[in-house]
Amino acid sequence: MHRFSFYLEGRPAPRLSFPLNKKYGSPAILVFFVLFATLALGQTKMSATESEALKAKVKSLANNTRTITSDFTQYKHLDFLSNDIESSGKLAFRAPDQVKWQYVKPYAYSIVFKNQTLYIDDEGNKSNIDVSGNKLFERLNHLIAASISGDMFDAEQFDMSFFNDSGKSLVHFMPKDPQFSEFISAFHITFNELGEVERVKMIEPSGDFTLIVFSNRKTNQPLSDAHFAQ
């Protein structure tokens, strides 16, 4: 079985260590609790009225969006690395589920999902994977495409929690399917005031995660088949 993960390989970096102060504990722990308290103040649970309004806004926008292009920066967090692996590139999306991730830094690398096939171009080394017989992979592809537009409000598939977060809207999607949860334990999606997706965080059961931050988003501009060619 092919396991899909958004990250490029990187060299392990040495961990940072702090001396333990017996009276106050590790400075890193103190900083963590101060930071956590600060972040918690900016995040409050939405009321039922607010969450329903957000769902309606996002669904309306998604239903009227045929294409999306955007720059993105991706951060892959692995517990055994001191620093996240950072990469960047351009996204192209065409409804209902054609997606191209064009990485430009630090390496030239592209991934295209279309017609139940995964196309990979690794600096000129091209390959493809037929995922039509892999229902789990197909579902993951569908959910990744849905996360780009933000329309993942399916109570049969997810438990959901809604938050106001420093002027943004944050939704936690927890898959109900135990088999799917073996790959992704949660999606955290941040929306701006228009209902557009600004950030997608995919969390693995191990606690490792992939965070994708979008910028320079453009919608409903013509995208030809050439945009999704390998």
UniProtKB/TrEMBL annotation:
Entry-linked InterPro entries: LolA/LolB/LppX (IPR029046), OM_lipoprot_carrier_LolA-like (IPR004564)
Gene3D superfamilies named among the record's database cross-references: Lipoprotein localisation LolA/LolB/LppX
Pfam families from the UniProt entry: LolA
Top-level taxon: Bacteria
Swiss-Prot/TrEMBL keywords: Lipoprotein, Signal
The name this protein goes by in its record: Outer membrane lipoprotein carrier protein
Organism whose genome encodes this protein: Pseudozobellia thermophila
